[in-house]
């Protein structure tokens, strides 16, 4: 049975919010603070309205409505996927037991922490992308930016609903804090490092939505397995929206590479910077940075916390129920990346302790699919150069390789050599300045900036030259 969202309510929802007046009042008192945060930290470019999709249903059939809407009037709401009355916990020591509809007392603190960390990432990316509208390469891209922003705002609502609905006073306090931390703030930064980095240009935005939102996909995928059913159902619905964010990144980089190839062929040179393009060397450096920063989001290669989350039934593996094992892992082992006698190698650890590595490997394989796609564009354009993912030890600040400096090939380097050579692997000020110099807005229908190719198709069957955004 699909449950339609109730749009007659002040807070659209499909969780019968009107049946819990206390919760409804608490969320309605949080709502003005959210709108104030959106006004001060959300998209800075003034608009009349934007062609956005709004969730209207969580059924297996169509789930979203498209139309022009003023962003301040966007109906952020609370949507959970359909409940399976027969659902049972699929892993850990509670495997086979009915999924929990309330928070088990012994796991209260751990569950709250998991929800807060996930919730903190959602407004952070909106803050990071606040000023990008001022340099949008087309109205199509501007619309996609705003779609990502409003959905990250709704994902914040999703986590706040869980905090308010299931964690009492502590949950309400945590929900307030989610609006008080800010990306890059000296006094109260966001919890995870990648969400305090700048997103100053559209190449960074495409890399962020490809690599960092993909980390979000995998984190949501593990929480979707949770024995706490409201969290599971929340994450299942969020994953529907997350797919669009990654599409923006995937096709954005497609179009950057495609335009660079066109300029290389047109001018018979690898140095397209002089012709208003982004050189492949620069694309590779941005890829190296965003990929390595995103790898850090998975934490250390080994983690007793994650082992405990799994055993408790709080957080599973990616595609847990498709795994061909006992889903308890008590006697299993896994090889994880490690420094062994000063060399990059692998070592065997208990599978439960190595779950971060298991998830990171799923992510790396997924990231490679995009690189393969971009390389097919290079091949089709007759360009011999290929993009690639750097070694897992490259530019790491978290985990086994945080204490070393490694090249993209995985060679451990002395500190001095790293400092001399890192400008060949990570964006330099010269690279960033060139990319920023290209960031001139194009707000005319059907037109696009010269550094990126137009998309192959528009949104929801509309053409590229549709009026996606009406500026104020």
Q: Average pLDDT, to the nearest integer? A: 95
Briefly note the CATH topology name: Ribonucleotide Reductase, subunit A
What does the radius of gyration come to?
A: 23 Å
Order of helix and strand elements from N to C terminus: HEEHHHHHHHEEHEEHHE
Stretches with pLDDT under 50, minimum 5 residues: none
Instruction: Report the span from N to C terminus.
Output: 41 Å
Please sum up the structure shown.
The chain is mainly alpha-helical and 472 residues long. The protein is 45% helix and 8% strand. Helix 3 runs antiparallel to helix 6.
Can you put this structure into words, describing what you see?
Keywords: Oxidoreductase. InterPro entries: Aromatic_CoA_ox/epox, Benzoyl_CoA_Oase_BoxB, Ferritin-like_SF, RNR-like. It is an enzyme of class 1 (oxidoreductase). Its EC number is 1.14.13.208. GO terms for molecular function: oxidoreductase activity. The chain has 472 residues and is mainly α. The chain has one domain (17-471): Ribonucleotide Reductase, subunit A (Orthogonal Bundle). The protein contains eleven helices and seven strands. The protein has helices at 21-41, 108-128, 139-166, 168-180, 202-223, 229-267, 280-296, 304-312, 355-380, 415-421, 429-438, and strands spanning 47-55, 64-69, 333-340, 343-350, 405-406, 412-413, 469-471. A three-stranded antiparallel beta sheet has the order 2-1-7, covered by helices on one side. Strands 3-4 form a two-stranded antiparallel sheet. A hairpin with an 8-residue loop joins strand 1 (47-55) and strand 2. Helix 2 (108-128) runs antiparallel to helix 3 (139-166) and helix 2 packs parallel to helix 4 (168-180). The longest helix is centred in the middle third of the chain and has 39 residues, at 229-267. It is globular and about 65 Å long. The model has no long low-confidence stretch (mean pLDDT 95).
């Amino acid at each position: 049975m699909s449950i339609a969202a109730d749009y007659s309510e002040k807070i659209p929802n499909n969780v019968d919010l009107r049946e819990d007046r206390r919760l409804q009042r608490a969320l309605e008192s949080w709502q003005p603070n959210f709108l104030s945060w959106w006004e001060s930290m959300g998209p800075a470019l003034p608009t009349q309205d934007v062609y956005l999709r709004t969730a209207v249903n969580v059924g297996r059939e169509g789930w979203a409505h498209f139309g022009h809407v003023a962003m301040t009037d966007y109906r952020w709401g609370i949507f959970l996927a359909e409940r399976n009355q027969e659902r049972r916990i699929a892993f850990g020591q509670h495997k086979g037991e009915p999924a929990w509809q309330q928070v088990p007392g012994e796991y209260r603190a751990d569950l709250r922490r998991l929800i807060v960390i996930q919730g903190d990432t959602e407004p952070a990316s909106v803050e990071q992308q606040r000023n990008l509208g001022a340099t949008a390469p087309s109205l199509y891209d501007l619309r996609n930016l705003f779609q990502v922003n409003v959905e990250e705002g709704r994902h914040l609502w999703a986590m706040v609903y869980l905090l308010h609905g299931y964690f009492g006073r502590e949950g309400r306090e945590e929900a307030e804090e989610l609006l008080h931390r800010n990306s890059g703030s000296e006094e109260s930064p966001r919890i995870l490092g990648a969400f305090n980095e700048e997103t100053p240009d559209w190449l960074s935005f495409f890399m962020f939505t490809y690599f960092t939102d993909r980390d979000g996909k995998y984190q949501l995928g593990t929480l979707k397995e949770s024995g706490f059913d409201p969290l599971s159902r929340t994450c299942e619905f969020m994953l529907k929206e997350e797919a669009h964010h990654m599409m923006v990144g995937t096709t954005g980089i497609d179009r950057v590479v495609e335009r660079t190839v066109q300029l290389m062929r047109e001018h018979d040179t690898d140095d397209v910077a002089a012709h208003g393009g982004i050189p492949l060397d620069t694309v590779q450096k941005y890829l190296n940075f965003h990929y390595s920063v995103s790898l850090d989001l998975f934490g250390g290669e080994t983690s007793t916390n994650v082992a405990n989350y799994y055993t408790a039934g709080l957080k599973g593996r990616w595609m847990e129920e498709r795994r061909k094992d006992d889903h308890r892992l008590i006697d299993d082992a896994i090889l994880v990346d490690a420094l062994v006698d000063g060399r990059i190698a692998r070592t065997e650890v208990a599978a439960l302790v190595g779950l971060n590595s298991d998830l990171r490997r799923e992510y790396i394989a997924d990231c490679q699919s995009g690189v393969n796609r971009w390389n097919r564009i290079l091949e089709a354009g007759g360009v011999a150069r290929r993009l690639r993912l750097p070694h897992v030890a490259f530019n790491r600040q978290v985990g086994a390789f945080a204490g070393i400096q490694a090249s993209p090939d995985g060679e451990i380097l002395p500190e001095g050599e790293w400092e001399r050579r890192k400008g060949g692997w990570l964006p330099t000020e010269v690279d960033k300045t060139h990319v920023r110099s290209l960031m001139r807005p194009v707000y005319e229908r059907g037109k696009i900036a010269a550094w990126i190719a137009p998309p192959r198709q528009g949104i929801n069957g509309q053409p590229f030259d549709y009026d996606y955004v009406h500026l104020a």
